[in-house]
Amino acid sequence: MTASGQYEEVDLAVEEALALVKEGGAVVPDDSGTTGSPRPASASAPTPASAPAPRGDGPGGTAEHHAATPWQQARGVAGRAARRPGTPVSVPLDAALGLVLAAPLTALTDLPSFDTSAMDGWAVAGPGPWDVRAEGVLAGHDAPAPLTDGEAVPIATGARIPQDTSAVLRSEHGRSDDNGRLHATRKVVHGQDIRPRGQECRSGDPLLPLGTLVTPAVLGLAAAAGYDTVSALPRPRAEVLVLGDELLTGGRPHDGLIRDALGPMLPPWLRALGAEVVAVRRLGDDAQALRKALEDSDADLVVTTGGTAAGPVDHVHPILRGLGAELLVDGVKVRPGHPMLLARLKENQHLVGLPGNPLAAVSGLLTLAEPLLRTLSGRTAPEPYALPLQDTVHGHPYDTRLVPVVLREDRAVPLHYNGPAMLRSVAVADALAVVPPGGARPGQELEILDLPWAMAGIEVCFT
Ligand SMILES: Nc1nc2c(c(=O)[nH]1)N[C@H]1C(S)=C(S)[C@@H](COP(=O)(O)OP(=O)(O)OC[C@H]3O[C@@H](n4cnc5c(N)ncnc54)[C@H](O)[C@@H]3O)O[C@H]1N2
Ligand code: MOO
């Protein structure tokens, strides 16, 4: 980093501190996504919002200035980075959850596919009282013999309606006299409690359009409509490369070593975002191992964690440069997570570099990986929505902040312990609130990003 770069970094810290003081908020280290405690206001002049952030080039690199991308713009770039989803494939229903339909779902049968009883009771023909047939009709059996006027037959919910039935009498609405004849205790309306064939759809009716996300309910509808497989877009393949010599995969932190929080967190989240996670590899801080892993990977998306900044073992930038990768986003004006990056490794292969701080990684996941995977998996963007904020949230002077919130009675309640290295808040959050530069006051409407764990980690077992 150059001397001038260092001065700009100092200015930014002053501006951040001043912004917090102006709002009457205390500067709490690691709880604001900013860089620390306030310095005297006389230390320097304000840095304009458009000033480029400095970045060293890593070990042995030359210093350069680069402009971080505004948060909304970064999401847009990520959404457009991948050119198209994969080629549609035929997928068995038990593997289709979370995929997107590549063809409309058209009914392969009438639903119901025969006239069926909606209730347990009797199928009756004509006005009562009725003589009752000895043998009843159960679901799953072939067509029963037709009824004649004045006749009834015991019937179960879901059983086929005998021909010439005029209504179904519920079991609680009929009584037998001493001669075994059936009487209705309620008025019987013609056709009552009969579900006619084709009531829900006729064979060939369109049920769901192309592009529908396969939810559990879609699986149920597809099965009911006669499907064993559906045509769907394949999951983009993602590989996770966890960087850092300091990471442990078990036990408690000790001797300067810490637990890897991202290895367990990212795969289910990526899956919830539509990806198939093909590998999670821990590479330490070995630059050559990173280079080889990137050269060898055939994943659609490589996600790295850590090593995005300019520390002595932050290898991501130099290795990307060495590989001739195209940096599409190099830093984002968002806190936490501002060193996040997006690169094109090959024509159809992208890399999202998530910062190592765990909440910063979540920020990068939702800012860059989510829009990229959305395009690759053919999903449509959720309708944006906003909610009023419950309490004041201090802002960064120039950057967007993403703050974990819980949603309570149509308000977003910001959570504490939201520093870049902390997961306590996001672990109980429903969503992230998008806080504009300068912060937000109670009642102010903020865009809300739902956290994508509706389907996280669901492994469907069919036995
Ligand atoms: N001189 C500057 N230093 C830093 C800046 C800056 O602007 N100038 N930005 C800071 C910010 S903000 C972030 S975020 C981090 C990003 O750093 P890296 O992406 O290079 O990540 P690391 O240095 O490897 O790690 C940062 C931090 O996170 C811990 N970590 C890493 N991986 C994991 C993991 N899998 N599970 C749990 N914790 C992890 C790591 O031990 C570090 O404490 O850079 C700042 N520095
Ligand atoms: O603000 Mo960093 O991106 O600590 O997380």
Write the layout of secondary structure elements.
Layout: H1 3-22, E1 53-55, E2 64-66, E3 69-70, H2 71-81, E4 89-92, E5 100-101, E6 105-106, E7 116-117, E8 121-124, E9 131-132, E10 151-155, E11 167-170, E12 174-176, E13 182-184, E14 194-195, E15 206-208, H3 216-224, E16 229-233, E17 237-243, E18 247-248, E19 258-259, H4 262-272, E20 276-284, H5 287-296, E21 301-305, H6 316-323, E22 326-330, E23 332-335, E24 341-346, E25 349-354, H7 358-377, E26 385-388, E27 400-408, E28 411-414, E29 431-435, E30 445-450
Parallel strand pairs: 3-23, 9-10, 17-20, 17-21, 18-19, 21-25, 23-27
Antiparallel strand pairs: 1-2, 4-16, 5-16, 6-15, 7-14, 8-10, 8-11, 12-13, 22-24, 24-25, 26-30, 27-28, 27-29, 29-30
Helix pairs in contact: 2-7, 5-6
The structure holds ligand LQZAQKY5 and molybdate ion.
Molybdate ion binds next to loops.
What is the fold-level CATH name, i.e. the topology of the largest domain? Molybdenum Cofactor Biosythetic Enzyme, Chain A
Write down the domain tally: 4
Taken from the alpha-carbon principal axes, the silhouette is elongated
Which structural class fits the helix and strand makeup? alpha/beta
What percent of residues are in strands?
A: 25-35%
Considering the protein shown, what is the CATH homologous superfamily of the largest domain? MoaB/Mog-like domain
Helix content: 10-25%
Instruction: Return residue spans where pLDDT drops below 50 for at least 5 consecutive residues.
Output: 1-65, 454-463
Largest sheet: 7 strands, mixed
CATH class of the largest domain: Alpha Beta
Number of helices: 7
The molecules bound to the chains, other than polymers, are: ligand LQZAQKY5, molybdate ion
Please tell me the overall pLDDT: 87
Gyration radius, in Å: 31 Å
The CATH level-2 architecture of the largest domain is identified as 3-Layer(aba) Sandwich
By DSSP, the count of extended strands is 30
Keywords: Magnesium, Metal-binding, Molybdenum, Molybdenum cofactor biosynthesis, Transferase
GO cellular component, one term: cytosol
Cofactor: Mg(2+)
Catalytic activity: adenylyl-molybdopterin + molybdate = Mo-molybdopterin + AMP + H(+)
